[in-house]
Design brief:
- With about 180 residues, this protein is an all-alpha fold.
- The chain has seven helices and no strands.
- The chain has helices at about 5-35, 40, 45-75, 85-105, 110-135, 145-165, 165-175.
- The longest helix is centred in the first third of the chain and has 32 residues, at about 45-75.
């Protein structure tokens, strides 16, 4: 593997883990110090999933879209090197809005549609990364980095699926009253 690629990959992982740790610390702090009762009702895992899939990923998608549009305006609309193409903009932005509305807003308020959307996202991620893992493992030219990334994604999504299907988490959404915010 190229040394520069290894450094970029390693630093990206380090910053990602640091961000997740900071996010968990913020959630626990808000849970203990915020006056809104919803922070104490919502489990830490549900808050974490809601923030990552309902706020952070849609924000990253919108920022990438703005960067893409800016580059296309500066370089010409036909320019597609190292940025999203036009079709990606048409699919990713509505998906980001849907994630924000269903997971960011509904799951965050402990509503059943948000729970169902989170369960669909986690299960679809599990199936998709399982397929990627299988394809990467049985490819003619095996790439250990692709296999590792696919298996890591599979583990991540499978654990979230199990967490969301767990009785205590599922019961929270079946018995919870809609919270006004």
């Amino acid at each position: 593997m190229n040394k520069g690629f290894s450094v970029v990959l390693g630093m990206s992982l380090a910053y990602g883990v640091s961000f997740f740790g900071l996010l968990l610390a913020y959630i626990v702090y808000q849970r203990n110090h915020h006056k809104d009762e919803l922070w104490r009702l919502r489990p830490i895992g549900v808050s974490f999933f809601g923030v990552v899939y309902g706020y952070v990923l849609p924000l990253i998608a919108v920022l990438n879209a703005l960067i893409t549009v800016g580059v296309k305006v500066a370089r010409g609309w036909d320019y597609n090197l190292l940025i999203w193409n036009d079709a990606s903009l048409l699919y990713v932005l509505p998906a980001a809005v849907l994630l924000f509305l269903l997971i960011g807003r509904q799951l965050w308020r402990l509503r059943l549609p948000g729970y169902l959307a989170a369960l669909v996202v986690a299960a679809a991620g599990t199936v998709w990364t399982a397929q990627l893992s299988f394809e990467a493992w049985f490819a003619d030219a095996r790439n250990l980095h692709v296999i590792g990334a696919a298996v890591t994604g599979l583990i991540w999504h499978a654990l979230w699926t199990v967490y969301l299907l767990k009785g205590r988490t599922r019961q929270l959404f079946s018995t919870a009253k809609p919270v006004q915010a």
